[in-house]
Write a structure and sequence with these properties.
With 661 residues, this protein is mostly helical. Among the domains are: 306 residues, no CATH class; 64 residues, no CATH class. The protein has 28 helices and 2 strands. It has a two-stranded antiparallel sheet with strand order 1-2. Strand 1 and strand 2 form a beta hairpin. Helix 2 packs parallel to helix 4 and helix 17 runs antiparallel to helix 18. It is globular. Belongs to the complex I subunit 5 family.
């Protein structure tokens, strides 16, 4: 059964090619069903392969399809490495992608480029599978670039709006910074080991010089920072919300953004061989990203922007886990996060769909009454990410905090503060959208009034416009607009994802070793380098209770602020947070101002000095040659004269060297 491994990426690739060639002819909705069937088939195949992998030694299987790049000592195969890490990634990537494809059939209904959307989605799934299944760094990089390209296509899918097109370009360019680090790291691996195949160079990592290992990991970490949106390369992810919501759920919550975490866990033996300060750098950037992104989420009003900054924050948690040696905890949180964040992103899409494309949470409220399925599933995702027991996020986040406490009290404290902020801002979102006052009725009536006012003022004058506005507001406010529940193709994926968001914590319960299924499953990949925790029953109980109290405290504070209104929300939603600590604007201003001038100076230096030196040598050579050609007259007597002169010069030189004493 495990030999069917090749079929897992082949099915999405076949779906992509079919939709690319015949998508317009097939049209809606069949193009969506074909794309969904291709990914669902990939998931079913993955389950079959997973069953077969149990019988393989150390649950590892390699498959070489063909030699791709033979060039002297450098050789790259198209081959797959199936081990516990890649198998875990494959299962949740294909499973969640299939659900999101199904959801997209309803969400993208009526879009003029419906078939093209599923073409891009199938290509993305194929690229993501190549990234996690590739048995070497070059093949991983192929998938890495593939998901980056698909991200650009899908973020700017509605490119008619300049903001959407700019967001796609921003994501593409920012990721190129990280990709540079990945490439340099790959080159360094080849120079150090003579190979880029994981099974060949990772076992040799312990014998690598510490300086070399540190350089390789720094470069690969830069690549991971770009793809997984860590400070300062996180600025592209919030803007990526310009894409359709299924894109946000699939690419920017559950799969592509976790690629950096996957890469770090994959090369964990090199981290172990690096300088002792490198894990501190990884953990420090991770916890700083988690904290800063959480504070920014507090003040966002766009329903998707809150989830975007939440994703950045949760990715920071995963890097914190990598830095403190909790590789299993990083993968555990990656899996649970994929379920509850995909559930909430799709839930936000359902809200936007039911609210006629409204995304401002200040214009929502009380939607649980008219969108009960969306509300219930979103609330389950909220309880999971807030860390409320027994939902999945509680177990995975507490696992990370346990490793952080083992490494440093400071890291643990910042992790707890971030957990408090997470519970607060997610509760804020739920209360503003699904509870409280139905602001959508008032806001819609006001919008209709304003629209009518402008139309009337342009034709009949301002005085009459005011009368019409008042009459229209009285007659229609709250009557012309009715939020509604989404169709089954959208609610069924929500229900499935909510179920797994609730129960996925069972993968790795901390009470006994027999319940730590994920830890035992990943043992062949990370067991040798992972930090070993030995918590007593009392220590475990204290940590679990502390995490629970922190989560409930965050919810209680949000309840008091946004439902009971005991504190003015403006005292919490500071402009500093609303503007993202001015990090994005500072980088943009620098790149458009001083940075642009600096790059122009570099370009001028290249043109004047570098190119000038090369061109100057060429001009000097050409000028000298032009002068030398004058001695080549073509006359025999001239050549004879030159020979005579040359002979005299040689004789004179010899005589000056001879001693007659």
């Amino acid at each position: 059964m495990v030999s069917l491994l090749w079929l897992i990426p082949a099915l999405p690739l076949a779906g992509f090619l079919l939709l690319l060639l015949l998508g317009k002819r097939i049209g809606e909705p069949f193009a969506g069903w074909i794309g969904t069937a291709a990914v669902a088939g990939s998931f079913i195949t993955a389950v079959v392969v997973f069953a077969g992998l149990w019988n393989e030694p150390e649950h590892t299987y390699s498959l070489k399809l063909f030699e791709w790049m033979p060039a002297g000592r450098f050789s790259v195969d198209i081959g797959f490495l199936l081990d516990p890490l890649s198998m875990a990634m494959i299962l949740f990537i294909t499973g969640i992608a299939a659900l999101i494809h199904l959801y997209s059939i309803g969400y993208m209904h009526g879009d003029s480029r419906f078939p093209r959307f599923f073409t891009y989605l199938n290509l993305f799934v194929f690229s993501m599978l190549m990234l996690v299944m590739g048995d070497n760094l070059v093949l991983t990089f192929l998938g890495w670039e593939g998901v980056g390209a698909c991200s650009y296509f899908l973020i700017s899918f509605w490119f008619e709006k300049d903001a959407n097109a700019s967001a796609g370009k921003k994501a593409f360019i920012t990721n190129r910074v990280g990709d540079w680090g990945f490439m340099v790291g790959t080159f360094a691996v080849f120079f150090a080991f003579g190979t880029v195949k994981y099974v060949e160079f990772l076992p040799k990592a312990s014998g690598l010089a510490q300086t070399t290992a540190t350089f390789i990991m720094l470069m690969l970490f830069i690549g991971a920072m770009g793809k997984s949106a860590q400070i300062p390369l996180f600025i592209w992810l919030p803007d990526a919300m310009a894409g359709p919501t299924p894109v946000s759920a699939l690419i920017h919550a559950a799969t592509m953004v976790t690629a950096g975490v996957y890469l770090m866990v994959r090369v964990n033996p090199i981290i172990a061989a690096s300088a002792s300060w490198l894990p501190w750098v990884i953990a420090g950037i991770g916890v700083a990203t988690a904290f800063i992104a959480a504070t920014i989420a507090i003040a966002q009003t766009d329903i998707k922007k809150v989830l975007a900054y939440s994703t950045v924050s949760q990715l920071g948690y995963m890097f914190l886990a990598v830095g403190v040696g909790g590789y299993t905890a990083a993968i555990f949180h990656m899996i649970t996060h994929a379920f509850f964040k995909a559930c909430m992103f799709l839930g936000s899409g359902s809200v936007i769909h039911g609210m006629n494309d409204e995304q401002d949470m200040r214009r929502m409220g009380a939607l649980r009454k008219v969108m009960p399925i969306t509300a219930i599933t979103f609330i389950i995702g909220w309880l999971a990410i807030a860390g409320v027991p027994p939902f999945s996020g509680f177990w995975s986040k507490d696992d990370i905090l346990a490793y952080a406490l083992h490494k440093s009290v400071v890291l643990y404290v910042f992790g707890l503060i971030t957990a408090l902020l997470t519970a607060f801002y997610m509760s804020r979102q739920v209360f503003m959208v699904f509870f409280g006052k139905a602001n959508w009725a008032e806001s819609h009536g006001a919008e209709l009034a304003n629209k009518l006012a402008h139309e009337t003022a342009s034709t009949e004058g301002d005085a009459h416009a005011d009368e019409v506005v008042d009459a229209h507001a009285d007659a229609h406010a709250g009557q012309d607009f009715h939020p509604h529940e989404s169709p089954r193709t959208m609610t069924i994926p929500l229900i499935v994802l909510a179920f797994f968001a609730a129960v996925a914590g069972l993968l790795n319960l901390p009470f006994t070793e027999n319940l730590e299924f994920l830890k035992r499953w990943l043992e062949p990949v990370v067991g040798a380098t992972q930090t070993q925790l030995h918590l007593s029953g009392s220590q475990l109980a204290i940590e679990l209770v502390t995490s629970s109290v922190i989560a409930l405290l965050g919810i209680a504070i949000a309840y008091g602020v946004y439902l009971k209104h005991k504190v003015d929300a403006r005292r919490i939603e500071l402009p500093l947070f609303a503007n993202g600590w001015y990090i994005d604007s500072t980088i943009s201003n620098f790149m458009g101002g001083l940075g642009r001038k600096g790059f122009e100076l570099v370009a001028m230096f290249d043109k004047v000095v570098i190119d000038g030196a090369v061109n100057g040598v060429a001009r000097a050579t050409r000028g000298g040659a032009m002068r030398l050609r004058t001695v080549q007259s073509g006359y025999v007597r001239w050549y004879a004269l030159m020979i005579g002169v040359g002979a005299v010069v040689i004789v004179a030189f010899v005589l000056t060297q001879v001693s007659f004493s």
